[in-house]
């Protein structure tokens, strides 16, 4: 009888291939790991600080992987390219997601009215991707415009969602640079609004 209770308590861990949220988190983890590798291969005076900050971002991604039932530490670079044009699904809140971004807005943010504050309580992190200012999201489809305001310095940016990630909003390098505080790679106090 002890065996049946153990089987009932074994959680199912999903791989990136099984879940859009897990895929987004794995991609973000891979991008940050790639950034760290680049800093170690070609260091400059700021490399140590950048690496330390990115390691903190990686730990946050791993916490989100665990909370979402994803394989913790699974890393992927460019894995989203295998599924071009796939919209972000409006997934129901999954068991074990308490404290994750999806639990803050379980109905999915796609139905939010323009100008409405969304993703309450979410932190904003950096994807490590280059290019023009943009964002990725697990709640809004590509083409959605989001305004992100950092309450610690009152800087804001408006970006278009271009891909799927494991967070309500994940900013690329150019967008994050517009709102970050010097030396920080995580925004804990942010207001996120859907503006288009």
Automatic annotation (TrEMBL):
<protein>
    <recommendedName>
        <fullName>Secreted protein</fullName>
    </recommendedName>
</protein>
<feature type="compositionally biased region" description="Low complexity">
    <location>
        <begin position="73"/>
        <end position="85"/>
    </location>
</feature>
<feature type="compositionally biased region" description="Low complexity">
    <location>
        <begin position="91"/>
        <end position="105"/>
    </location>
</feature>
<dbReference type="InterPro" id="IPR036908">
    <property type="entry name" value="RlpA-like_sf"/>
</dbReference>
<feature type="region of interest" description="Disordered">
    <location>
        <begin position="31"/>
        <end position="116"/>
    </location>
</feature>
<feature type="compositionally biased region" description="Basic and acidic residues">
    <location>
        <begin position="51"/>
        <end position="66"/>
    </location>
</feature>
């Amino acid at each position: 009888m002890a065996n049946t209770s153990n089987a009932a308590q074994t959680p199912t861990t999903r791989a990136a291939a099984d879940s859009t949220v897990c895929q987004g988190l794995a991609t973000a983890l891979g991008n940050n790991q790639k950034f760290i590798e680049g800093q170690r291969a070609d260091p400059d005076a700021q490399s140590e600080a950048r690496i330390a900050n990115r390691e903190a971002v990686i730990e946050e991604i791993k916490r989100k992987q665990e909370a979402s039932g994803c394989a913790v530490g699974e890393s992927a670079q460019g894995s989203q390219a295998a599924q071009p044009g796939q919209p972000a699904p409006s997934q129901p809140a999954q068991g074990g997601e308490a404290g994750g971004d999806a639990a803050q807005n379980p109905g999915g943010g796609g139905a939010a009215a323009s100008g409405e504050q969304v993703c309450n309580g979410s932190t904003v992190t950096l994807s490590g991707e280059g290019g023009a200012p943009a964002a990725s999201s697990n709640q809004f489809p590509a083409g959605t415009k989001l305004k992100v305001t950092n309450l610690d310095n009152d800087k804001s940016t408006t970006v278009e969602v271009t891909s799927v990630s494991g967070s309500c909003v994940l900013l690329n390098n150019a967008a994050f640079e517009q709102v970050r505080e010097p030396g920080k790679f995580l925004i804990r106090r942010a207001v996120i609004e859907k503006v288009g």
